[in-house]
Design goal:
With 93 residues, the protein is an alpha+beta fold. Helix content is 22%, strand content 33%.
């Protein structure tokens, strides 16, 4: 399974529209559009999960294509290292 980053999405994009676009190139397992935590508004990017071969095909076919006047940026998602927050070093009392 490959997770694709889909950037520069129009704010009007829906999960259904993104799923329909990518499903032309294979089976879409999951679509996640990212929204602002505070306002709930779309942030203009999301993720699509597909099988490795389908994801590769979709990335090549759709990167740079126009969706509602915006040029999509598609690449393989990189796992984000989550920080534990806080100070980081050993505590000294």
């Amino acid at each position: 399974m490959t997770k694709l980053y889909v950037g520069n999405l129009p704010f009007s994009a829906t999960e259904e529209a993104v799923r329909a676009l990518f499903s032309k190139h294979g089976t879409v397992e999951k679509v996640s559009l990212i929204t602002d935590r505070d306002t709930g508004r779309p942030r203009g990017f999301g993720f699509v999960e597909m099988s490795n071969a389908d994801a590769s095909r979709a990335m090549q076919a759709l990167n740079g294509t126009d969706l509602d006047g915006r040029s999509l940026k598609i690449n393989e998602a990189q796992d984000k290292q989550r920080s534990g927050g806080g100070g980081g070093g050993p505590r000294r009392y």
